[in-house]
Amino acid sequence: MARRATAAQRIGPRPTGTPRPRRRKPLFDLEPPGAFSTDWDSPVGTDTGVMARVTARFGAGSTEAAIMRVLPHFRGVYGPNLPLGAIGQLELLPAGTGLLSRLSPGVDVSSDDARDSVHSLHARGMILVADDGSVWTTVPPGTPHSAPDGGWTFVEQVRAPAERIAATS
């Protein structure tokens, strides 16, 4: 004990520990509400292996194969669990209406970059798709500005797309 006291006098008090950066919870773990957040897929295996199984079962020209060609991109955005209904609904957002650029930061953002930004916001729980297909800006639970009960805070309805896919298959 005397050694510690002597060292403290010589070098000063112990520095306070630096806080660790928060690890972001995946959207699946945030348990978003709504019908578009009920259909989750968790492809098992590598992207190449999953694609090979789908092609063998349904054929290379099938709708299932076409869907599986784009899912690896979304695995990078959402993590291992993919909200298929919400992804499909967000893909219906029209590029020409300005909605994508309103939800994505930056000037002169390409349509693809804006779409990626929207999916990134959704993967973080910053926007959600309501049961009627409308898109809401939200504050996820467990953040400083979330609802007092620790739940989701719905901030603003951004827009309901003209088209709507079925929330569940």
Description of the structure:
The protein is of the alpha+beta class and 169 residues long. It has two domains: 26-40 and 83-169, no CATH class; 43-80, no CATH class. It is built from seven helices and five strands, in the order ααβααβαααβββ. It has helices spanning 2-11, 27-30, 47-58, 63-78, 84-91, 99-103, 111-123; strands spanning 40-41, 82-83, 127-129, 135-139, 153-159. The strands form two sheets. Strands 3-4-5 form a three-stranded antiparallel beta sheet. A two-stranded antiparallel sheet has the order 1-2. A hairpin with a 5-residue loop joins β3 (127-129) and β4 (135-139). α3 (47-58) packs antiparallel against α4. The mean pLDDT is 81.
List the helices and strands and how they pair.
Layout: H1 2-11, H2 27-30, E1 40-41, H3 47-58, H4 63-78, E2 82-83, H5 84-91, H6 99-103, H7 111-123, E3 127-129, E4 135-139, E5 153-159
Antiparallel strand pairs: 1-2, 3-4, 4-5
Region (Disordered): 1-43
